[in-house]
Design goal:
Strand order of the largest sheet: 1-2-3-5-4
Largest sheet: 5 strands, antiparallel
Structural class: alpha+beta
Distance between the termini: 31 Å
């Protein structure tokens, strides 16, 4: 889809903080994270909602989702993780390309479902992405 934000990120027309990529999926840090390490995993196949994603495309991206979750747990030492996927505005979807939020959870750090305050700087996010890719 030509005007889709995530398709443009996948095509590298818009910069992103890539964490992982394979033939089926692209994972990158959210620039308005709810927690340190909040990452989005998107299929390379454009589908507005999960209802429109062909089963073989969903199956193809699941290993990338799991690999990214394991990477975050190992590199960040988080105590748990929320994996969330929203469909339609009524369910909180704001970018209309299927995507999964991986939100690390840390003992003693409440999860508020609001962007971190203060917001991490781009330099901090770039350093985190480099740490996760290393």
């Amino acid at each position: 889809m030509d005007d889709c934000l995530f398709c443009k990120i996948i095509r590298q027309e818009i910069p992103s903080l890539k964490v992982f990529e394979d033939e089926h999926a692209y994972a990158f840090l959210d620039i308005n994270p709810f927690q340190r390490g909040h990452t989005l995993v998107v299929p390379k196949f454009h589908a507005k909602e999960i209802f429109h994603l062909p089963p073989e495309e969903l199956a193809g991206m699941m290993p990338a989702l799991q690999r990214t979750a394991c990477l975050l747990k190992r590199k960040l030492g988080c105590d748990g993780m929320v994996i969330q996927q929203n469909n339609a505005p009524i369910a909180g979807q704001t970018v209309f390309h299927v995507h999964f939020h991986l939100v690390p959870c840390y003992e003693g750090v409440p999860l508020t479902w609001q962007p971190l305050d203060p917001k991490p700087t781009m330099e901090e996010l770039q350093a985190l992405a480099e740490h996760l890719r290393a």
